[in-house]
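The material for today's practical consists of a large collection of protein records. A record pairs a protein's sequence with a compact description of its fold. Instead of coordinates, the fold is spelled out as a row of discrete tokens. We will come back to this pairing of sequence and fold again and again. Here is such a record, shown just as it appears in the course material.
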Amino acid sequence: MTEVKLIDPAQAEEYQKFVASHPKGHILQTLEWGQVKKSMGWTPLPIGLFDDGKIIGAMLILKKKIPIPLISKSIFYAPRGPVADIDDHNLLDQLFQGIRKIARQHGAIFLKIDPDVVHTAHDFRAYLLNRGFKKTVTAEGFEGVQPTFVFRMDITPDEDQLLAEMAPKTRYNIRLAERKGVTVREATGLDDLKSFYKILMETAERDNFLIRGYIYFEEMWESLVKKDKAKVFMADYEGRDISGTLAFILGDKVWYSYGASSNEYRNVMPNYLLQWTMIKWAKERGCTLYDFRGVSGDISEDNPLYGLYRFKKGFGAEFTEFIGEWDLVYSRLFYWMWNELLPIYYKAVRQLIRWRKG
């Protein structure tokens, strides 16, 4: 007998083991990630599909209330879910049907997924379309959707083979950093995290992108780093921190998630040595997949983000396109309001804030 239900504390360990060991398991489907997002206003709802008391499918859903007065509705988002056999359509049906019942209890108007599934999985795409999912893009006001385009690297070969498959310039820069005296260490405390965040702010200002507040990274330290599901690495040169990275780890996979580099000493190429150190660390932990995370889908050389693409590609990683974002709509009226009216609401709020400041 199968049933879909929320994971209770007594089932937490089984849920964690299932996600960590499943081929579609992902760090963003763990209870620890739910705790990180809870600090940002989301409510984590870990869900399991049970068969005779054993988990055979799972999904961490993040719930958020719609921020419009007098509307008691919410949205469901499962980052990189589901954790299930995507070829077993009967299993998927049971999972999604059970989630629909839970969605009704929580007033959810839709479920958004961005699965860890490549875009060439035509059978799974057909399944989603057949079951009423809509291919979509992120609506304004929705945060945290995962990248469609990434670089991923098979790290099962030995280190010499991995180096041989890198671009010559990448190998050269790794060795240059070593010759120049750059050293990489694993962060051991909040002082290191603060140093990393300071450099991250410097990077964000230089490259013109937004970052979350320090408390978000402190929560990741508490929920992930301390529980051996993430690691911060710092690159030092002449006695000072000049670069840093944060990586997630689960099962046999590692995801490079944040990188920061100082405006100074970029000529000693610390970022190359950092990546190589993380790859070796991932191998030591028994991992087989190293994910460099997002890049632009536009890989033309005149794209301002082409440098990031070239940097990641240089390590011998494979450009990978995922199947993208899909919404399963539970309420057509409120879903229309979400897509058509909510952006207008956000725009009006921003204008009001500017007016009050001005």
Notes: The longest strand covers residues 54-65. The chain has a mean pLDDT of 92.
